[in-house]
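REQUEST FORM: STRUCTURE PREDICTION
Request ID: SP-0412
Submitted by: Lab K.M.
Chain count: 1
Length (residues): 333
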Amino acid sequence: MVGVVGSAATDRSVVATVVVIAWNGAGLIGPCLDAVAQQELADGFVTWVIDNASTDSTAAVVGLHPIGARLLTVSSNLGFAGAAEIAVREATTPFVVVLNQDARPEPGWLAALLAPLTGPDAHRIAAVTSKVVFTADGLLNNTGVIVGRDGYGRDRGFGQPDDGRFAEPEDVFAFSGTAAALRVVAARDVGSFDRSFFLYYEDTDLSWRLQLGGWRVRYAPDAIVYHVHAASTDVSSPAFSFYNERNRLLMLAKCAPRSLAVKEILRFAGITVALPIRRLMRVDIPKGHQFRTRTRVRVLGSFVRMLPNVLAKRRAVSRICRRPRAEVARELT
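STATUS: Completed
RESULT:
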């Protein structure tokens, strides 16, 4: 259930809807909205905040902010994926921009982000991803997402100096949901965000389907965002490992060539079986919840329960394919 504060009556007269996705972010949402309020766009934009059933004062902070954002509240936490799906479904503008609550865009970010979607090279561009820089140390967080031949998504440029090495606009495999613009008609064309992902890999999954649908994803180096990494979620937590590993398998089952999907699912299961044996043999195993048998068994159990629905989604993806799965998979690194 979604509750709405504010009116969308003027949305059709502007080109973009900037959607900040919030959850218990009372200390983060104010600076984020301050930065959004500094953006200038010739064709205008509106601002929404989708509040994922926060239990703190996030809604009150949004209500008092002078930007006058339209506040959409949901009765239960739908995760980033569910909130982003609402944004794409409910928007009445040609473009939707998703933005994390712990992100702070630089002035000029929005215009630079939307430029590839409206410029002379806009043909078949469905999404544009920002240059995301760590607030703490100025190193790069993300310049788009690459996907390895093992199906794992990786932040392009992660941890590297922001010294000009990613200064040119170029096509990338996937956008980062931290700060990205979407052509609404394209996102809807391929099924939008999959809310069953909850969080993690929902952006890469949608990007893969956009690639299969014949669309392109673009990196805009002048669209700069500073990011307080993992301010909303703990990347060392069991929940991170669970969703990260499960959703990779879901994405592969939906989007990848059958051979790659089956290989990676079986490899994950095989490693899960082997880990207790390796511990008995006193073999060193890396730390992290992704190497804990309990977490991996949870992943496999959830994946198997979701498999019938995922296979139905795979058939739906096949119907929108304008490029063969094998051709898109050749772009994996």
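NOTES: The chain has a mean pLDDT of 94.
Reviewed by: T.R.
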